[in-house]
Amino acid sequence: MTAGKTREGKRLAKMMNRKFIDLDRLIEEREKKSVAEIFSEKGEKYFRLIESKTLQSLNTSENKIVSCGGGTPCYYNNMNWMLQNGIVAWLNISVDTIVKRLSETKKERPLIKNLEGVELKNFINLKMKEREAFYSKAQIKIDTENISIEKLKDELEKLVSKN
What we know:
By secondary structure, this protein is mainly α. It has one domain (5-145): P-loop containing nucleotide triphosphate hydrolases (Rossmann fold), CATH 3.40.50.300. It has helices spanning 5-15, 23-31, 35-56, 78-85, 95-105, 117-135, 149-162, and strands at residues 19-22, 64-67, 89-92, 140-143. Strands 1-2 form a two-stranded parallel sheet. A two-stranded parallel sheet has the order 3-4. It is globular and about 45 Å long. The chain starts with a helix and ends with a helix.
């Protein structure tokens, strides 16, 4: 949720000379609809299913950086699949920063478009608590409020060289 996955993923892919894939954009290309349209027309259950199928259809033999949605690791055994097929980095961010960033893009996010103030903050707190068990399985945890893309690159390179 607005942790900088796409922005930092693109920068990291460029620095490491890797292909970059934004899972949400790939889903939009395949479905020919925005994520918001998919959610509103077909529901979250449908979206999570095609999200999982899209993720698991990626070629695991090529080195690439994949940016997934904040909910991706929490459904259909996706986190275990990601851990078996790559290195997972959790870009952590404070709830207050998430609230601030999401307030600017709410209309694009079906689950929160009608939430304001305390309701929005409570929703985000709940989602973060639900997701933490999945996120905590990541091999790398980076505080994105103080992120150094160079540090993330160094951590990834260390893990890659160990495997």
